[in-house]
Write a structure and sequence with these properties.
There is one protein chain. By secondary structure, the chain is mainly β. The protein has 2 helices and 10 strands, in the order βββαβββαββββ. It has a 6-stranded mixed β-barrel with strand order 1-2-6-3-5-4. β1 and β2 form a beta hairpin.
Length: 187
Amino acid sequence: MPLAVHAIQAPQKQRTPSKQPHKPPSIIFNDSNLIGVTLLHSDPLVIELHVNRFVVERVFIDQGSTSEVMYYEAFIKLGFNQSDLSPALHPLFGFNTNPEYPLGKITLPVRAGSRTMDVVFLVIKLPSPYNIIMGQTWLHAIQAVPSTYHQLLCFLTQYDIEQICGSRHSAPAFCPPPEIPNRNILD
C-alpha cells in the first residue's frame, strides 16, 4: 500500500506594518548626490562632527587609517589637558617614516547626525590642517560609506540612511552647536 503524504499549511498570520521584518535600505550614490559639488575635484572628504558638546570642523575621513586621531591643538581647544589622557601603548605609523608616539588616548562622545557613540582618540602632537582623523574603526561601527567623489558620508540608522556632506567652507574650527546655550566659541 503506497504511503500517502498530506501537507497541512498553517494559516498565514496577517502582519501589521510594525511587525514586518525590517530590511535595511541600501546606500547608493548617484548624480543627484552631486548637487553643489564642483566636479573634476580631487578633494578629500572633510566633514563636521559633534565631539564632546562642540562642533568640530576639519574632520578628515580616512578609510586607510586604523585609528581615530585627535591633534593636540584640537584637544586643547576642547578644554582638555594632559592629565585627561590615559596611556597609549603603541606607536602610530604612516605620518612620516618614523613611528609617532601618541601623547595618550581619550574617549569622547561623537555625534554624527542622530547617532552618538564613544570613540577612543589617540592624541598626537603634529602639525596638521585637520583637527581629527576618523578611520576604519569608527566608519565600521556606524556602518558608514564615504564617497570623496560625491563629498558625502552615508550611514545607516535604525530605519533610514543619514548623510553628512563634505564641508569646504572656511569657518572657525570650533563652535558650540546651537542647542547648547551659554557656551563660549573657541577660536
